[in-house]
Amino acid sequence: DTEVTQTPKHLVMGMTNKKSLKCEQHMGHRAMYWYKQKAKKPPELMFVYSYEKLSINESVPSRFSPECPNSSLLNLHLHALQPEDSALYLCASRNPGDTGELFFGEGSRLTVL
Amino acid sequence: SQQGEEDPQALSIQEGENATMNCSYKTSINNLQWYRQNSGRGLVHLILIRSNEREKHSGRLRVTLDTSKKSSSLLITASRAADTASYFCATALDRGSTLGRLYFGRGTQLTVWP
């Protein structure tokens, strides 16, 4: 099983809503990543968890709150988002210390109204 | 910024032709990777070339790396309509780090016409 599974695939939310994006992997990877990607742009790193601890926060606004409840799960909690936060949110995983392939999920398409 | 520059930004070819995309970067790397992304989907890893390698092949893909020029190229031979996608290069700077950050280029949008 080499999949990274993201849910939901699509999410529409208002600026006052609270929602969460979920990512799951069963490859035994201990580093998990959140990326944000706007149309026709490269992915931008948001957060990295290594051994379930937050190791990188790329100065992401606090309306995005990551959580890594265990080594297989990664959540991104969303609250009071802005329309400009509409994007494709990608989860990825691999092993810490590994500089090789990143395994990506299919992404969650977020629209903020 | 380490972020790569890719050219061309867009490439349009006929099926059967070869497609070449280039990537340049700014600082020393551990490896360089190429990813493919179909519209609205996740990224799929295609190939990795290490800093001590000059050329690598995988099926219809050929990657070259010139560390003196800090550049790489991806060649797709005998292209197919199904190759239509965005292609990103990504560089890994950290060796032995727990972070393993990848820096993505801006991407090349390849369109292959039947």
Key words describing this protein structure:
heterodimer; A: 113 residues; mainly beta; 7-stranded mixed beta sheet; 4-stranded antiparallel beta sheet; B: 114 residues; 6-stranded mixed beta sheet; 5-stranded antiparallel beta sheet; 11 strands; 54% strand; globular
Protein architecture, described:
The complex is a heterodimer of chains A (113) and B (114). Chain A is mainly β and 113 residues long. Chain A is 0% helix and 57% strand. In chain A, strands 2, 4, 5, 6, 9, 10 and 11 form a seven-stranded mixed beta sheet that branches. In chain A, strands 1-3-8-7 form a four-stranded antiparallel beta sheet, with no helix packed on it. In chain A, strand 5 (44-50) and strand 6 (53-57) form a beta hairpin. Chain B is mostly beta strands and 114 residues long. Chain B starts with a strand and ends with a strand. The mean pLDDT of chain B is 91. Classes of the chains: A mainly beta (113), B mainly beta (114). The A-B interface holds A 4, 6, 31, 40-43, 45, 48, 50, 55-56, 88, 90, 92, 94, 96-107, 109 and B 3, 30-31, 33, 35, 40-45, 48, 88, 90, 92, 94-102, 104-107, 109.
The secondary-structure class of chain B comes to mainly beta
> How many beta strands in the DSSP annotation of chain A?
11
- Give the distance, in angstroms, between the N- and C-terminal Cα atoms of chain B: 38 Å
How big is the Rg of chain A? 13 Å
Q: Report the major sheet of chain A.
A: 7 strands, mixed
The proportion of strand residues of chain B reads over 45%
Task: Quote the average pLDDT of chain A.
Answer: 94
Helix content of chain A: under 10%
Note poorly predicted spans of chain A.
Answer: none
Shape descriptor of chain A: globular
Task: Label the overall shape of chain B.
Answer: globular
Helix content of chain B: under 10%
